[in-house]
Amino acid sequence: MTKTTTTAPNTGGGMWLFEDTTSGSVFTPERLSDEHKLIDQTADEFVRNEILPSHGQLETKDWKLARVLVNRAGELGLLGTDVPEQYGGVGLDKASTVLVGSRFGQSGSFGSTFGAHTGLAILPLHCFGSDTQKDKYLGRLVSGEWIGAYCLSESSSGSDALGAKTRATREPDGSFVLTGEKMWITNGGFADLYIVFAQVDGEQFTAFLVERNSPGLTIGREEHKMGLHGSSTTPIILQDVRVPSDNVLHHISKGHKVAFNTLNYGRFKLAVAASGNATAAIGEATKYAAERQQFGQPIATFGAIKHKLGEMTVRAYVVESMIYRTTGLLDASLKGNEIADAGPLRNILEELSIECSILKVAGSEMLHYVLDENVQIHGGNGFVKDYPAERQYRDSRVNRIFEGTNEINRLLIATTLVRRALKGTLPLISAAKRLEDEVTDPPTLVEASEVPLAEQRSTVLAFKKTSILVLGLSMMHYGDKLGEQQELLSCVADILIDTFGAESAVLRADQAAIDAPQNQLLQIDATCVFVNDAAGRIEANARTALASMSDGDSLRLQLAALRRLLRFSPINTVEKRRRLAETTVERGGYIFR
Ligand SMILES: Cc1cc2nc3c(=O)[nH]c(=O)nc-3n(C[C@H](O)[C@H](O)[C@H](O)COP(=O)(O)OP(=O)(O)OC[C@H]3O[C@@H](n4cnc5c(N)ncnc54)[C@H](O)[C@@H]3O)c2cc1C
């Protein structure tokens, strides 16, 4: 590993795997400023006072009300926190946007309306729009006067987004005529501006800005969904819709850049919303567990329930740590750049695509776990509609499907890393070679240390080496056919997700000695539980991966190398989860914010 001595984090995507990130260099929620806290409070009050009470009405598909609420969010500056002031935004950093997104994550269906409008319409227009397009549309979207939607998917192309069949035919006057049908479009029923992806002349994938009142554009019927009943999801049908050449977003044949960078940010923001949703649900679960009596005592006093509350807290803490660490990378790389210049933002979104996919998978699966256990803690009341647990469980299921399914994101995590290694932008091949020598050297004894988190730090180093070992061997074994080994790549992705999570938690807990000393012991508890359990998962994934490509003596040698890397002693996680759960109950909710 190359030891970095700077206190500034390296913003190169995936570089954390090869460098020893110094403690003190990552952004954490404990480092939010007073200005950040103000915007957080504004978003929190808006969601609690105006969105949550409207939820029942929104579920009747009252899109007039949805428009009013989007407009109100615009008045409060919540739709354009990171948009330049010249377009009506507030011009703040990404940390502010994360705080707002996290609060909206607690707002159920409206979170989806908000997410599509800000992340899938405002963001691509800000990043890829021409000055004329921004002058015409961005201010309207940021104020909430207009609502945006993003039309990529079609009935036959969801994951295979570039396989879209919608056609754009060039006309002699330079305009385009669009024909096709888009599926599952969030805000479809009431948007004013649609970002539509189509193939120009059948082969050049391109994004277009299409206004709602364009002749030939019709909106299909609302989908009957499992959840998110208060969010509009419809097909958008385009029959000979004429679009002026000025409304090509970015460049002809560069639609993939618009689509994928928008999705990168969307994945990051999905994790942010999941984090907000999970922390709120932990509050509800805690309150219920403290009040509900069985066998003459609150269910919160039972070990089985403490395990759940403790584990929910651990998982939410780790995802939150990864989110803020990534936010720090985004803000550090945008610092010093004019916010009006979208070029650096486009570049960093592409650069951090691995981290965005990691967050999407980790955030959505953490939320699924938390909401499932929330239902369980509520018992029968969790299965009926009188409590929010039932709706939240249904609403959250789609998080593992949209913004790229979790299967696709797992494949992206591993294949992007391999691609960058082959291009030489990530030092995977040299790191794998160094590791080959290291695992055959006689083992050095790790001295026991009293320093908090010392063991966890060296375990994280072992996680990184395991990732490099498995990836290096996979590349050697399969060469350019590695992309076909999806089960193996998914194992690699899971190892990387756990590694990034474990390191982010360790760094945050370490920094808490200065940033949040009153909470540091609890952060250490959460970190130790996560690292302990991640070690078991990483070992199992690595064994599955190695056994899928080797056998006999060669497998035995590889497994011996794995054992040398991953030497750790289990800790008492029961005691730590109990302490986390008891503090959660004492404080009445999620303890790390
Ligand atoms: C409520 C809701 C809102 C949505 N909002 C929008 C929106 O605003 N705009 C928009 O454009 N789209 C939207 N979508 C569509 C969404 O992005 C797609 O549903 C998603 O990308 C998955 O595509 P699909 O449904 O065609 O599934 P498929 O691609 O058919 O996938 C089915 C299964 O096969 C797996 N799979 C597919 N390909 C591979 C592969 N190569 N390797 C391994 N496994 C694979 C998938 O992981 C999945 O498990 C929304 C969907 C829903 C349900």
General description of the model:
The protein is α/β, with parallel strands linked by helices. The protein folds into four domains: 29-147, Acyl-CoA dehydrogenase/oxidase, N-terminal domain (Butyryl-Coa Dehydrogenase, subunit A, domain 1), CATH 1.10.540.10; 150-254, Butyryl-CoA Dehydrogenase, subunit A, domain 2; 256-406, Butyryl-CoA Dehydrogenase, subunit A, domain 3 (Up-down Bundle), CATH 1.20.140; 412-587, Butyryl-CoA Dehydrogenase, subunit A, domain 3, CATH 1.20.140. The protein has helices at residues 34-51, 55-58, 63-75, 94-104, 109-128, 131-143, 255-291, 303-334, 343-351, 353-378, 388-396, 406-423, 428-440, 454-478, 486-515, 520-549, 552-565, 573-587; strands at residues 2-3, 19-20, 148-151, 167-170, 176-186, 193-200, 204-211, 217-219, 233-243, 248-249, 293-294, 297-298. Strands 3, 4, 5, 6, 7, 8, 9 and 10 form an eight-stranded mixed beta sheet that branches. A two-stranded parallel sheet has the order 1-2. Strands 11-12 form a two-stranded antiparallel ribbon. The relative contact order is 0.10. The structure holds flavin-adenine dinucleotide (FAD). Flavin-adenine dinucleotide (FAD) binds at residues 116, 150-153, 158-159, 184-186, 225, 228, 233, 398, 401-402, 405, 407-408, 486.
CATH topology of the largest domain: Butyryl-CoA Dehydrogenase, subunit A, domain 3
Count of discrete structural domains: 4
CATH C-level of the largest domain: Mainly Alpha
Largest sheet: 8 strands, mixed
Overall outline: globular
Ligand species: flavin-adenine dinucleotide
Average the pLDDT over all residues and give the rounded result: 94
N- and C-termini, Cα separation? 33 Å
Radius of gyration: 24 Å
Low-confidence stretches: 1-6
Instruction: Give the amount of beta strand, in percent.
Output: 5-15%
Strand segment tally: 12
The second-level CATH architecture of the largest domain is Up-down Bundle
> What is the H-and-E element order?
EEHHHHHHEEEEEEEEHEEHHHHHHHHHHH
Q: Which structural class do the helices and strands define?
A: alpha/beta
**How many alpha or pi helices?**
18
The CATH superfamily of the largest domain appears as: Butyryl-CoA Dehydrogenase, subunit A, domain 3
Helix content: 55-70%
